[in-house]
Write a structure and sequence with these properties.
single chain, globular, four-stranded antiparallel beta sheet, 10 strands, six-stranded mixed beta sheet, mainly beta
Amino acid sequence: AVQLVESGGGSVQAGGSLRLSCTAPGFTFVASDVGWYRQAPGNECELVSPISRDGATFYADSVKGRFTISQNNAKNTVYLQMNSLKPEDAAVYYCAVDAELMAIRFLGVMSCIDYGMDYWGQGTLVTIST
């Protein structure tokens, strides 16, 4: 089974930065669309940013201008650079792979992993202190 592994979460002060990483041992991202999603307590799962296999990207309005998604095919890793973090960015961040991922803007589920993506990671927690 494919296992996506997120890392890079942690605690940071508001205004700070974090870089999340998503890797997949034994699975190549080069032919896949990969997305970052987040889930804050009591909130529905929210799309943050996907990147297509040909490099197209999309950003949720809430993170546009602050977050940047990128892909390093040599390292088989997708990154989410998060700058100017706000308290409302606190959440568990998940990466996912799905053939239809670039067309998905709204998941409509409370728990990200309940949405039928091809693969989900286990999530990495981001906390923001003020």
